[in-house]
Fold these 3 entries.
Entry 1:
Amino acid sequence: MSKNIAIIGGGNLGSAIAEGLINSGFAKAENIFITKRNIETLSQLKEKGAHILNNNKEAVANADYVILAIKPFQIKDIISEIRPSLKARKHVLISVVTGIWIKDLIEMTGEDFAIVRAMPNTAIAIQESMTCICSHNASEEQAGFVSNLFNQLGKSVIIDEKLMDAATVLGACGTAFAMRYIRANIQGGVEIGFNAKVAALIAAQTVKGAAELLLTKHTHPEEEIDKVTTPKGCTIAGLNEMEHQGLSSSIIRGITTSYKKIVQDM
Ligand SMILES: NC(=O)C1=CN([C@@H]2O[C@H](COP(=O)(O)OP(=O)(O)OC[C@H]3O[C@@H](n4cnc5c(N)ncnc54)[C@H](O)[C@@H]3O)[C@@H](O)[C@H]2O)C=CC1
Ligand SMILES: O=C(O)[C@@H]1CCC=N1
């Protein structure tokens, strides 16, 4: 029997999850119940056959798995609103809300629920997310279902909840960090002769190819670098200059600064 999935909050992430689940074939559109206060922007999902609602309780009542994809400041009110429709032995709650811990969710729902925290990134829109997952009270079947769900939307890994802030920085903020690296390549590419469009294509596909090498061959980055660097050649000259200017150090410091910001704010 196919499971019904409610997505509470059809914004950037919520609608991308719905789209990815339908496009991958993991869920039929008719098994998805997605909510938003103003449902007009969800018309594409409606055309595909998903249930578009502005009633969270109705979505929950129809679902087995409930994905919470709203902003952190909204979660308390929304859980109070849907709480009467939640049934402990029926519903599994999946929160992608940044900085909301399982203990916070238990305070809002009570002890009896299977609760999953997931940290995806915006590449979920094209089924290329990296999603870190941890769970509480979930049966093997429920945890397996959630892992399968996120594996349809990219790759997933199970982590300890204490690493969720670190996952947010490396996996979710990481998309922005990678974009800035690509942007710098475009700027450099224009300075050495390409127009911006061609420079953007070369920069993005080169970064994609480099990432695919590591994911496919399971090699260490330095092993791949050795294959590119001709002795006395231009690659090592450029790389060493980047390191003299602090490339690795600035990335490490950016990551640890983001991490300190999350830990201090939450
Ligand atoms: N953007 C990112 O890179 C990542 C975001 N997150 C987390 O995911 C969550 C959602 O993020 P986004 O999709 O980017 O935000 P968003 O603002 O695009 O989506 C939230 C949606 O919830 C809807 N909403 C507001 N009140 C509602 C209500 N009472 N009932 C139903 N829907 C309601 C809003 O209309 C909006 O469409 C946030 O908690 C964020 O921290 C997690 C990982 C990465
Ligand atoms: O910048 C932020 O706070 C959020 C967390 C993950 C991505 N965006």
Entry 2:
Amino acid sequence: MSRMSEKDLNTMRRRMASVANHLLPAFSSSSSSAQHVVSSIGCSSSINDTYHRVHGEVPTHAPHWRLIPCDENGKDFTDIIYEKAVAEPIAKITINRPDRRNALRPNTIKELIRAFNDARDDGSVGVIILTGKGTKAFSSGGDQAVRSKHGYADFESFGRLNVLDLQVQIRRLPKPVIAMVAGYAVGGGHILHMVCDLTIAADNAIFGHSGPKVGSFDAGYGSSIMSRLVGPKKAREMWFLTRFYTASEAEKMGLVNTVVPLDKLETETIKWCREILRNSPTAIRVLKSALNAVDDGHAGLQGLGGDATLLFYGTEEGSEGKNAYNERRRPDFSKFPRLP
Ligand SMILES: CC(C)(COP(=O)(O)OP(=O)(O)OC[C@H]1O[C@@H](n2cnc3c(N)ncnc32)[C@H](O)[C@@H]1OP(=O)(O)O)[C@@H](O)C(=O)NCCC(=O)NCCSC(=O)c1cc(O)c2ccccc2c1O
């Protein structure tokens, strides 16, 4: 038999490793993601397939955060802290009213909307983290101290429900938004984390609705998205009984993606950001629209349709139409395929 080359040997090793992997015990569906399997067995090299060899683990170091002190008009942020990671496409928006359990007043929402707008427009941002200052609360929802006859009113003479605008903004923002939840996420705080694309919860997190106890309710996303997430029966239970649920109960209900020890919350969230950021931004963008499209009706279709147009503009076929118009000639689309 002729001597094996180094390349043949490597191929053989790879195939043997692959066969050995298939002999590993199967994992339950609750830990179905490959990365989750990797972390649950604590050793990425245990799965020695091409996928894991090529993609490997993401770095675990903490980002260096740069403070964005004010909005685009130079107005200082007071109710939020807005930061961007240096040399990494991650933005972090922190609700900063810890002595009120990060309750939301109209000004808090206005600042959140401005920060989210900035993160959307900034091409160097690919993922946005939404969180609350401190470990006691993500947010306790609408600030009951400033609730008036027509909504919430802080520095104005009229009330607003501008949290609804924020919910729509997060839902339509073409970048993933991750809720990083420690402590209470109740009332409007619970709804905000549900509207985010993913939720990473600390083991001290508590979720629930208090609306009907304080004479309020969110009959918009706060009802429809919750029913989608936990199912219609559980959604009714949560709204009708206004009980609070632990992080692990929330995970079982499908309300959160994962639960981690409080001191690992940011590290784990950053890990999820980095894993997302290694993937195609356009794929992620279109998937976010697609995952929302059916539920969001015309607005959902518009988002997904807008993505299609955006991609089409980058093609030669799309440019031919524009060029022909600008050159005052008929467009020639004859060379473009009519795919089956
Ligand atoms: C969140 C709590 C369960 C935490 O309890 P804990 O014992 O840890 O802390 P305290 O209760 O002592 O709170 C410390 C301090 O913060 C003040 N505070 C906390 N939450 C709020 C709040 N939401 N508004 C105003 N102030 C708040 C509290 O008074 C204390 O102040 P001191 O001066 O006494 O130190 C518990 O705090 C709690 O149950 N909070 C209230 C939760 C709540 O009912 N939230 C409002 C629900 S309604 C809502 O959020 C809402 C959401 C929407 O999306 C809507 C959409 C459309 C229409 C309406 C909407 C809407 O109303």
Entry 3:
Amino acid sequence: MDAARLVEHYRRDDFLLATARRTLLASGTAHEITGTDEDALAARVSAALAEHDGGIAAGVLPYDAATGTPARLVVPQTVHTTGPAHPDIGRLAREHIGTPAAVRAVPDPHVHADAVSTARTQLAVRDLRKVVLARALDVDFAHDVPVASIVRNLILDHSHGYVFAADLPGGRTLLGASPELLVSRRGGHVVAHPHAGSMPRAAESAADAANAEALLASKKDRLEHAVLADAVAEALRPFCRHLEVPRKPALERTPTMWHLGTRITGELADPETTALQLASALHPTPAICGTPVTSARRLIGDLEPFDRGYYAGATGWVDGNGDGEWAVSIRCADAGEASLRMYAGGGIVEDSDPHAELDETSAKFATLARAMGLDSDVLTATYSRGDSASPG
Ligand SMILES: C=C(O[C@H]1C=CC=C(C(=O)O)[C@@H]1O)C(=O)O
């Protein structure tokens, strides 16, 4: 089956991961493993994989299992993998997504901007180097959420990155297009590709290049990124006999955002360490939480008006050899039957500007908004005003 057909076969309770290297579609449930204790989870996954020769376990890790949101992994009945969905998918038409009935910002944008101001002052009070604050958009449809169509459009939009759709407890679905690799393991080779520091893409090429230059030159973004790259390198170091950490971040692009990224590579010290164990050890990175973790988590809990659930967790798979690939679950939405919640966050350091942070989260929402066919001007008006409005 070619990649385009795999994507066409995706159904809401499947697991799909489309990357620049491969397209993976997993269907059916031979074994389901859920839990909030990561060591117990890793042991149960290894035991399940020992029973399913050549199998994988695919699924999601939550942002914070301590809030009671469990990790959920499934050993599927069937797994199909092919090469990258690009360019095969190009022959599929873009899916039309019906106009949503309503879009609501959670919290109101000005409340988010106030939270960013508070976070900025709390950094010094709580001895934090960085914290990541998120906001959400609730989108209601007059019909079932067309998950498969949105996923197909996400794949059409992203030749790079990690487009994912994973079944969640309660019949919900996590879907998105993350630019960020938490960790992959292939044999003894480990890769992490942390992203932090952002600027929106611009339609006009000179303005777009200027945004990229400004990002590279931004002290605030370089600091935001350095805190992340250092933390990821330090978390990987105990697992690796050799670790390569570039000294400077590189510019990374998605169709809607510029980011700073550092591709960290290493060789495992102990070949028994699995991709799932590495993902658990790295998570939560300062790309989605902060430094130090415990006080960053507490500040996030104090300032965000929702439970993150699976947003800012990880989505991926592990096989019986311990190989696997986990993306950071960002630029994503948690979809129910006829509504979904989109999330976007941004790293806050001392020099962060609340209004720039609001704009940055708006730009990050555009990843899903595009795939949902939402007119970005209408959406910007809606989520910048912060009221509930029909974008139709
Ligand atoms: C937390 C998110 O993005 C992270 C990844 C890249 C850049 C980020 C930033 O510049 O703040 C964030 O750390 C998100 O999209 O919700």
